[in-house]
Amino acid sequence: MSSNNQSLAMQRIAKLVDENSFMEIGSLVTARSTDFNLTAAKAPSDGVIIGHGLIDGNLVFIYSQDATVLNGTIGEMHAKKIASVYDMAMKMGAPVIGFIDCGGIRLQESVDALDGFGLIYAKEVAASGVIPQICGVFGNCGGGLSVVPALCDFAYIEESKGRMFINTPDAIEGNRVEKCDTAAASFQSENNGCVDGIGSEDDIIADIRALVSMLPLNNEGDVYTDSCEDDLNRACNSMADMKADPRFLLSELSDDHVFFETKKDFAKNMVTGFVKLNGMTVGAVANCSTVYDAEGKKAEEFALSLTAKGCNKAAEFVSFCDAFSIPVLTLTNVNGFKNCMCSEKKLAKALARMTYAFSSATCPKVNLITGEAYGSAYVAMNSKSIGADMVYAYPDAKIGMMDSKIAAEIMYPGADAKEIDEKAADYEKLQSSVSSAAARGYVDLIIDPADTRKYLVGAFEMLYTKYVDAPEKKHGTK
């Protein structure tokens, strides 16, 4: 259905959508400006293919940039075509997927092209929280264009040719590409906080298809549900042994052991992603202290502490889930905050942002305490105090102000080792045990790790019809 069937931009679309489902729109649009003899250059579709198609039968709207047209630059009509995709998607309540491969602003169109950039930004902001926005960066995405994937809900970068940057590496004082390629997919994925994954073009397109199939099409639809053939009462094996890496726990408790992780390389001490429970999509946020490789060996280890990056990652994910009424599950295993100069500069604000996200979210919220839950770090991780609907805990979980021995040393300065041990034992029994927290109503049920799936399925089914009448206000400030 396109005049550019052989272009790479169209080939990417063909890989993404169900076979023969794509319908192109605006194929006859071309550059409008005549300055600098621009009309002499051929500009089919003005360098961007737009239209709609199906992913597993779900309607999606798509734009795909063609880097072979006018060096892949964005001009006035190019930007207006992308904006029109958003207009149609908003009317139909369907996700927008963008494939970016761009040389930047078209110099021959100057302020018209700049206005087009602003128009794209405005459409993304208007669509935020209304329809899911996903993008894949397959070529250059520099300068102001890098705001586009940052405004999307999910973004991917092709591992070899994809490049995302505000300033090119050579433009950064004291740097060069050979020293540190700050535009590389790996660098951006690990550092900028808006990249969900890197990989080959085919890997990224497969991830986007899988993601669309897990998400609601818009903020007014039901939480995405599907049929479930997995046993709802299936025992979850090795949960207690593998709780340091929540990726294992989430895979084990999810339907058919499927866990779709987001922002994989960023703030690895905080894991976010989606699971299915009896066919219902559930967003998951979890503290992580260990990363295991494919062979089950420890690849990385982290302290059980909150970091600024981890808090920001969690906050953004929870806000997305709440906007689309996706239930949220937290796996809590944390005992404090990262202790360093950098944390003192950034952590308070990030912690406030995460606390705000959990507390203000009106979607169903369930917290599972798998290990330690100490101090205000625990409180911020979707505790009962800030609005969790249900809180479960494993029998060996520790919940309280701090480690019992540290508490004893503070309360009894100068005491000998024997007395400290005795007081620590008393403190743990009275103030830091899971049974003590349950007795005060802060934990709803102490469950066996093997029964995790059964109880979580039941909790989210019970919370399916949850409704909260929030106070009237324009918006919060965090």
TrEMBL record:
GO CC annotations on file: acetyl-CoA carboxylase complex
Residue span, CoA carboxyltransferase N-terminal domain: 1-174
SUPFAM superfamilies, per the entry: ClpP/crotonase (SSF52096)
Chain ranges of the CoA carboxyltransferase C-terminal domain: 224-473
Pfam families: Carboxyl_trans
GO MF annotation terms: propionyl-CoA carboxylase activity
PANTHER family linked to this entry: PROPIONYL-COA CARBOXYLASE BETA CHAIN, PROPIONYL-COA CARBOXYLASE BETA CHAIN, MITOCHONDRIAL
Protein name (record): Propionyl-CoA carboxylase
Taxon lineage: Bacteria, Bacillati, Bacillota, Clostridia, Lachnospirales
